[in-house]
Specification:
Converts 1-acyl-sn-glycerol-3-phosphate (lysophosphatidic acid or LPA) into 1,2-diacyl-sn-glycerol-3-phosphate (phosphatidic acid or PA) by incorporating an acyl moiety at the sn-2 position of the glycerol backbone. InterPro entries: AGP_acyltrans, Plipid/glycerol_acylTrfase. One of its GO terms (molecular function) is 1-acylglycerol-3-phosphate O-acyltransferase activity. Its EC number is 2.3.1.51. The protein is an alpha/beta fold. It has a single domain (about 10-260), classed as Glycerol-3-phosphate (1)-acyltransferase. It is about 45% helix and about 15% strand. The chain contains 9 helices and 9 strands. It has a 7-stranded mixed β-sheet with strand order 1-9-6-2-5-3-4, sandwiched between helices. Strand 3, helix 6 and strand 4 form a beta-alpha-beta unit. The longest helix has about 30 residues, at about 20-50. Mean pLDDT is about 90; it is low at about 265-269.
């Protein structure tokens, strides 16, 4: 009977080495649970340090999260660090593949930088509370008028408080091996704030993370930081061309660092 107590301890390692599906769900569950735990730790520290909601709390969150990659078997290669050495407010735009993007974001997140996220994240337990304390801007994607209003207010805050903002212009997660057409909100924001845009591109996760096939192996993610795109002097009439320009350079970089050849892809902005 005593042997039965050891069976779970034997089964888990065996499944880990023999079942890619088990590894997938184990890593996914661990990731969510551990991030909730880290958020629980971050909440009181953020409140004690800043007294409440403050973009400076992102430093605490960044510090607590940056080691998570090791547990998941991930490593990052950063190209173009020099392009983030920019003073004042700016808008970072990047492609969006999964919740794992958070780990890459924390690898390069500049000081006084927060993100735009869907409103549903606010209700994600301790993670939602930590995000709120970090000054993350929540938008209701189902109400375009509300989202536009938030963008206008955010542009004013960027100018007044000299903050930076990270936006995923695809608007949703995408694992189709390409970059989806961009929504224009981030570009309206940058033009309104007259702040430069800094594109950051994540390489494809397809060599280690496949959601449909339930695979989650160890792997390397390349982050390529591209030269800033100026918006000074631009108006709302220039937003479409600015969006097209940004999409073009980011898609080319994505295909390059992902080892894919250039091909015709999404282009309907």
């Amino acid at each position: 009977m005593e042997v039965l107590w050891f069976l779970p301890l034997l089964v888990v390692p065996v499944l880990f080495w023999t079942s890619s599906t088990f590894v997938y769900y184990f890593k996914k569950c661990f990731y969510v649970a551990y991030m909730m735990l880290l958020a629980l730790i971050a909440i009181p520290i953020c409140i004690l340090k800043s007294g409440g909601r403050d973009v400076e709390n992102m430093r605490i969150i960044r510090f607590l999260v940056r080691h998570v990659k090791y547990f998941l078997g991930l490593r990052f290669e950063i190209i173009g660090w020099e392009h983030l050495q920019t003073e004042g407010p700016y808008v970072i735009i990047s492609n969006h593949q999964s919740s794992l993007d958070v780990l890459g974001l924390m690898e390069v997140l500049p000081d006084r930088c927060t993100t735009i996220a869907k409103k549903e994240l606010l209700w994600a337990g301790t993670v939602g509370m930590a995000c709120w304390l970090g000054g993350i801007v929540f938008i209701n994607r189902k109400k375009t008028s509300d989202a536009k209003s938030v963008m206008v207010d955010t542009a004013k805050v960027m100018l007044h408080d000299k903050i930076r903002l990270w936006v995923f212009p695809e608007g949703t997660r995408n694992q189709k091996g390409d970059v989806l057409p961009f929504k224009k909100g981030a570009f309206h924001l940058a033009v309104q704030a007259q702040a430069p845009i800094i594109p950051i591109v994540f390489s494809s996760y397809s060599n280690f993370y496949l959601r449909k096939e339930k695979e989650f192996k160890s792997g390397k993610i390349t982050l390529k930081i591209l030269p800033k795109i100026e918006t000074k002097g631009l108006t709302s009439d220039d937003v479409s061309s600015l969006c097209d320009q940004s999409y073009g350079v980011m898609r080319a970089a994505f295909l390059e660092i992902s080892g894919q050849s250039q091909s015709n892809g999404p282009s309907n902005h």
